[in-house]
């Protein structure tokens, strides 16, 4: 048949849906999702082609089976290697900002409105890092905006810190592990975290804060390389060191706590975050 849809066209359509965050498919017949799909290997397409996505076979299979997968444009390994190269090449915050903006190895860049890089005073002793931009951050281009940002301002303000402060002793600097908003505010996928890690680790190296505070489980697990939940990670200090080769060699005292957006839904945990802030306040006295 001349008008038959080719296998390549079907895969391209599937990749487009995955890029938009559509990972669940309802069919008329029952499908055994424990059986691997018999798909031929995909050819890696050049980065300059019209359809630059070259999803690894495993990711396509996982997406077809209903798993939450958001592949990078270049393929997992190629995207990560390019991210490391771009991050290592940035010697200033301005260069890093441009490197992230120009990087096409992460699919959610296509669906985001603005890149979210940082806010606050880059000379601050404390760097606050969340997981990924939400709707307000995506609209404004700033991390920790909207209601969660207002709550964060109140939390750090209780111990004399502000993103507006000019004095580095009282200032904070804010960023996220991911610089682009995942569609629908979904949780970042492991592939997205992996390809974003070199950039945020280079970001930390360039700022050289004395203390890092990780807000939320995604940020804490990603930057500390841990698998425990937040209830285990908080209440104690950690030593952060970069996991990406060549982006830096700092060792920084790091605290993990609940994300402000989680506190808006679970206000009973505000007491726990207040205890974490008191730990931070005591730590600041030793700087």
Strand content: 5-15%
User: Tell me, what's the shape?
Assistant: globular
User: How many domains would you count in the coordinates?
Assistant: 2
Helix segment tally: 11
Q: Specify the structural class.
A: alpha/beta
Give the spatial strand order of the biggest sheet.
Answer: 1-3-2-4-6-5
Summarize the model shown.
This protein has 287 residues and is an alpha/beta fold. The longest helix has 18 residues, at 190-207.
Structure description:
The protein is of the alpha/beta class. The chain has 2 domains: 7-64, no CATH class; 76-284, Uracil-DNA Glycosylase, subunit E. The protein starts with 6 loop residues before the first helix and ends with a helix. It has a 6-stranded mixed β-sheet with strand order 1-3-2-4-6-5, sandwiched between helices. Helices cover 40% and strands 9% of the residues.
Jot down its keywords.
287 residues, alpha/beta, Uracil-DNA Glycosylase, subunit E, 6-stranded mixed sheet, 11 helices, 9% strand, globular
List the helices and strands and how they pair.
Blueprint: H1 7-19, H2 57-64, H3 76-89, H4 93-102, E1 119-120, E2 126-130, H5 135-140, H6 146-157, E3 172-176, H7 190-207, E4 211-215, H8 217-224, H9 230-233, E5 238-240, E6 252-257, H10 260-265, H11 270-284
Parallel strand pairs: 2-3, 2-4, 4-6
Antiparallel strand pairs: 1-3, 5-6
């Amino acid at each position: 048949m001349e008008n038959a849809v080719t296998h390549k066209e079907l895969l391209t359509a599937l990749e487009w849906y995955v890029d938009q965050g559509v990972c669940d498919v309802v069919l008329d017949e029952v499908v055994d999702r424990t059986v691997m799909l018999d798909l031929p290997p995909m050819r890696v397409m050049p980065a300059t082609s019209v359809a630059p996505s070259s999803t690894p076979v495993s990711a396509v299979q996982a997406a077809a089976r209903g798993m939450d997968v958001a592949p990078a444009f270049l393929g997992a390994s190629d995207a990560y290697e390019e991210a490391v190269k771009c991050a290592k090449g940035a010697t200033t915050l301005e260069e890093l900002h441009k490197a992230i903006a120009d990087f096409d190895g992460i699919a959610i860049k296509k669906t985001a409105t603005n890149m979210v890089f940082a806010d606050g005073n880059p000379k601050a002793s404390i760097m606050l890092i969340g997981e990924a931009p939400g709707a307000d951050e995506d609209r404004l281009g700033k991390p920790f905006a909207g209601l969660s940002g207002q709550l964060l301002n109140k939390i750090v303000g209780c111990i004399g810190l502000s993103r507006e402060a000019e004095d580095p002793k009282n200032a904070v600097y804010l960023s996220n592990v991911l610089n682009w908003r995942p569609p629908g505010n979904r949780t970042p996928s492991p592939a997205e975290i992996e390809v974003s890690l070199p950039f945020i680790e280079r970001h930390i190296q360039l700022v050289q804060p004395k203390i890092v505070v990780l807000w939320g489980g995604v940020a804490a697990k990603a930057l500390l390389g841990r698998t425990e939940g937040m209830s285990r990670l908080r209440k104690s200090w950690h030593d952060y060191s970069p996991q990406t080769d060549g982006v830096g060699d700092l060792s920084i005292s790091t605290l993990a706590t609940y994300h402000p957006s989680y506190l808006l839904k679970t206000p009973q945990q505000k007491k726990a975050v207040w205890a974490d802030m008191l730990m931070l306040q005591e730590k600041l006295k030793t700087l």
